[in-house]
Amino acid sequence: MATKKKATKEPAEEEREESAGDEEKQERDPVEELQQQLKKKDDELAEQKIDFLREKADLENFRKRLVKEKGDAVQFANQRLLKELVQINDNLDRALRAPNTSMETFKEGVEMIQKQFTAFLKNQKVEPIETIGKLFDPSLHEIMDQQESKDHDENTVIQEYSKGYTLNGRILRPAKVVTAKKSAAEKVEETVEEEK
């Protein structure tokens, strides 16, 4: 009978062995599962690193292309403008090389070129500043001289040395002008009246 007991295991003993086997499987499975998850995360990280490097290279190429395009834009920005100026210069050359021209025909030719140049400026949004008869404005005018005048109010522009221009509403060049000032006699009269 003792041998029978050795050959057959008690039910409690079998349960302990099965539970020990299950524990080993449970202990191994989470470790293996964690290793698989770690490998999967490593693979994902490697893919993201490759994507990052690719994006970085694309961004660097884009930056280089922008720098080149900006350089080209700066270098050739005035190309259209200069093309129009070259045509005006061609007309000036023709006027100077014209044979047997009288002073009157030469003047007519220069006037035509001036009209062409004025149209060019207008197309470029360059507008002349009106000066004669206007009050002096330091943002638009530069005083070159002052002259006594009984016919004009003080600080009124009475003469223009050179035209001023605006470009899209911004001062390109102020007008150089002469303004009116009161004569010395008028200043004395005003002082006397103020004292009364």
C-alpha geometry: elongated
CATH superfamily caption of the domain at 128-196: Head domain of nucleotide exchange factor GrpE
CATH topology of the domain at 128-196: Nucleotide Exchange Factor Grpe, Chain A, domain 2
Oligomer category: single chain
Distance between the termini: 152 Å
Q: If helices are DSSP runs of H or I spanning 4 or more residues, what is the number of helices?
A: 5
Please mark out the parts with pLDDT under 50 across 5 or more consecutive residues, or reply none: 1-5
The order of strands across the largest sheet is 1-4-5
Q: What composes the largest sheet?
A: 3 strands, antiparallel
Secondary structure class reads: alpha+beta
Radius of gyration: 47 Å
Helix coverage percent: 55-70%
Nearest-integer average pLDDT: 83
Count of individual beta strands:
6
Strand content: 15-25%
The first-level CATH class of the domain at 128-196 is given as Mainly Beta
In N-to-C order, the SSE pattern is HHHHEEEEEEH
Please state the second-level CATH architecture of the domain at 128-196.
Answer: Roll
Kindly describe this structure.
Helices cover 63% and strands 16% of the residues. The protein has 196 residues and is of the alpha+beta class. The chain has a domain at 128-196: Roll (Nucleotide Exchange Factor Grpe, Chain A, domain 2). The protein is elongated. It starts with a helix and ends with a helix. Residues 1-5 have low confidence and may be disordered.
